[in-house]
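Per your request, structure below.
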């Protein structure tokens, strides 16, 4: 059972959590928590002091401190001990929670404004990606057409599409060329694409997920953009990333950002207000503008907020209508509901 418990987390996650125990042990030497080389379970007051130390002495971010706390909890659980982050009734420590909230309020910087790349904007960007375009973007216009349209319609995070560098690729984390598959009707016409997402921010157990996007029959259709891109690639025997340049180098987050912002600037948008996450936000806003409610958006976009909505199972007919609905919104639809994706009164 111990092996099963350890295998419940990915190896990378377990390694990060082990680092949290080492950090606490180093701090524990200063407050007499370590005896004969063993780390004693910290009290709530110990954890409160440690959190403050991490924030104000080591200068760590609130998010990283929270991750370290989870790592400490996991470390004690692996040694068969009770979680030091909960009281004897199994409830979270109120004092620690308050300290963590105070650290977050003091140190968290105002969130950067990120506007959505809606399907209205996407169509404008796609018209800029043509075969006659000069430069690196023109040489790889089919690649970026596929990336941008997939990012909006499948509401992907950049890490679900890009490689970590132009020469290295992790097949256990980044999408490979086999990630997209296609579905056809009785006449042999393509109707939908299934994108096999290997790993994502919220998928710490690497369970993977299949994201279905239907053909929209519009200029920014992600299904057709992906088909055209795949048809342009050379056949290879070994596994390779899904998105690559014509010279064989891999598409990174930096390359995607620079291309996106270049196209936005050409379309007279203030590119500094957009990032790769604008693609995912844009998909959400476009669905809302098309008239779909929070339940559809939450399941379609795999949002962890309102987690109970993830238990809903949308039918393929609804997914088909959602894809087409996103493709046919206008700027007026977006203005009525606002960039937040919530309908205005």
């Amino acid at each position: 059972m111990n092996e099963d418990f350890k295998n419940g987390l990915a190896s990378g996650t377990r390694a990060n959590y082990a680092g949290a125990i080492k950090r606490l042990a180093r701090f524990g030497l200063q407050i007499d928590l370590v005896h004969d080389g063993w780390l004693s379970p910290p009290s709530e007051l110990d954890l409160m002091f440690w959190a403050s130390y991490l924030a104000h002495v080591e200068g760590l971010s609130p998010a990283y401190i929270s991750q370290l706390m989870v790592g400490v909890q996991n470390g004690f659980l692996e040694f068969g001990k009770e979680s030091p982050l909960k009281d004897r009734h199994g409830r979270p420590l109120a004092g620690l929670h308050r300290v963590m909230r105070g650290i977050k309020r003091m140190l968290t910087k105002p969130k950067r404004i990120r506007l959505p790349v809606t399907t209205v904007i996407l169509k404008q960007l796609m018209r800029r990606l043509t075969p006659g375009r000069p430069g690196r973007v023109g040489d790889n216009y089919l690649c970026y057409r596929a990336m941008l349209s997939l990012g909006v319609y499948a509401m992907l995070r950049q890490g679900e599409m890009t490689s970590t560098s132009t020469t290295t690729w992790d097949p256990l984390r980044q999408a490979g060329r086999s990630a997209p598959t296609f579905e056809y009707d009785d006449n042999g016409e393509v109707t939908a694409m299934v994108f096999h997402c290997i790993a994502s921010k919220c998928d710490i157990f690497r369970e993977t997920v299949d994201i279905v996007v239907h053909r929209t029959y519009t200029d920014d259709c992600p299904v057709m953009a992906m088909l055209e891109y795949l048809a342009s690639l050379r056949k290879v025997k070994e596994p390779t990333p899904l998105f690559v340049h014509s010279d064989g180098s891999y598409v990174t987050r930096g390359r995607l950002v620079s291309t996106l912002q270049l196209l936005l600037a050409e379309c007279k948008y203030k590119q500094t207000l957009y990032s790769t996450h604008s693609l995912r936000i844009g998909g959400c806003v476009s669905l809302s503008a098309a008239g779909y409610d929070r339940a559809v958006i939450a399941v379609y976009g795999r949002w962890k907020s309102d987690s109970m909505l993830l238990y809903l199972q949308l039918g393929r007919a609804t997914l088909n209508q959602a894809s087409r609905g996103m493709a046919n919104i206008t700027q007026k639809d977006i203005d009525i509901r606002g960039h937040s994706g919530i309908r205005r009164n």
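Strands lie at 34-35, 38-39, 180-184, 190-197, 209-214.

Regards,
D.
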